[in-house]
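To the wet lab folks,

You asked to see what we're planning to order before we commit. Fair enough. Below is the target structure as tokens, and below that is the sequence we designed to fit it. If anything looks off to you, flag it before the synthesis order goes out.
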């Protein structure tokens, strides 16, 4: 899965916009504690982060805590969850506890908050989760934004699992995760030496439950849906990614759009998988799309 790169976690932790103001809570999702943060009032937007990130990718304060800003999204309620295995949510190590259960957590969160329908915004592997929700619970979805990825739809290019397996194997064998960073450095980019990679890995994965990350990553193929299921959802769809996104992601987005026969496409100039989320054009394009969908 070409959903991450060497510096993705550093971007998530250090470069995401720092917003202020949010309410932090948790609920029981079929025996698993799911933590979420909300801000603002109005039509709900559920923000779903990517693999090995957490709700803080949508905004952090100076202490590193998740902070959302609804100032630029008046009329909306922002809801960002820590997917199971990530952030402050519970972290089971059994892959069977992930996959479809990650999508079910989103639906259960809506039930917990007594929300009938919501907009979904999924970034990277969060797009896989959003796609599963849209396909299996179409009546709960107002619109879907697939950012930096596309949903996993049968008949399109299968997700590349080598990256997940390289990470999971290193975790299984108790290896230094610097080897993972070296292995996933994009082609054409200078690979760090072992000492630098080891140092970066210690920073990036300090205090993280890497066994939970591995279990979650290995479960992603279970988020695949059929074209027939996807077409049950009539909600507006936006695909958005950076102009410098990997060819793999761009090709997957194009294939899924063709298969579905619909979906707007927005390209964020100069953005790649690491930086697109941090660009003002990203949030403005998403809010513009959601406002147009809110009026339908």
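Sequence we intend to order:
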């Amino acid at each position: 899965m070409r959903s991450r790169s060497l510096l993705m976690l550093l971007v998530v932790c250090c470069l995401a916009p720092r917003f202020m103001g949010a309410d932090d809570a948790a609920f029981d999702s079929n025996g698993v504690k799911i933590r979420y943060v909300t801000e603002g009032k109005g039509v709900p937007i559920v923000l779903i982060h990517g693999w090995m990130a957490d709700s803080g990718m949508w905004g952090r304060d100076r202490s590193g805590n998740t902070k959302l800003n609804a100032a630029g999204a008046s009329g909306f309620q922002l809801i960002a969850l820590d997917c199971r295995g990530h952030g402050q949510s519970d972290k089971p190590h059994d892959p069977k506890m992930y996959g479809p259960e990650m999508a079910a957590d989103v639906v259960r969160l809506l039930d917990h908050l007594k929300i009938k329908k919501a907009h979904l915004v999924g970034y990277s592997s969060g797009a896989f989760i959003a796609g599963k929700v849209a396909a299996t619970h179409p009546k709960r979805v107002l619109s879907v934004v697939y950012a930096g990825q596309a949903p996993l739809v049968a008949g399109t290019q299968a997700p590349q699992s080598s990256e997940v397996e390289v990470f999971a194997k290193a975790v299984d064998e108790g290896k230094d995760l610097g080897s993972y960073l070296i292995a996933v450095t994009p082609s054409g980019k200078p690979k760090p030496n072992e000492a630098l990679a080891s140092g970066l890995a210690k920073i990036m994965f300090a205090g993280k439950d890497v066994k939970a990350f591995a279990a979650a990553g290995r479960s992603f193929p279970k988020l695949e849906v059929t074209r027939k299921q996807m077409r049950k959802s009539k909600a507006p769809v936006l695909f958005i990614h950076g102009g410098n996104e990997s060819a793999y992601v761009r090709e997957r987005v194009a294939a899924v759009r063709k298969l579905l026969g619909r979906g707007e496409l927005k390209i964020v100039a100069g953005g790649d998988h690491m930086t697109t989320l941090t660009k003002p054009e990203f949030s403005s394009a998403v809010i513009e799309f959601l406002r147009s969908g809110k009026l339908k």
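Structural context that might help your review: The chain is about 35% helix and 15% strand. Residues 8-290 form a domain with the Rossmann fold fold (CATH 3.40.50.1820).

Thanks,
Computational group
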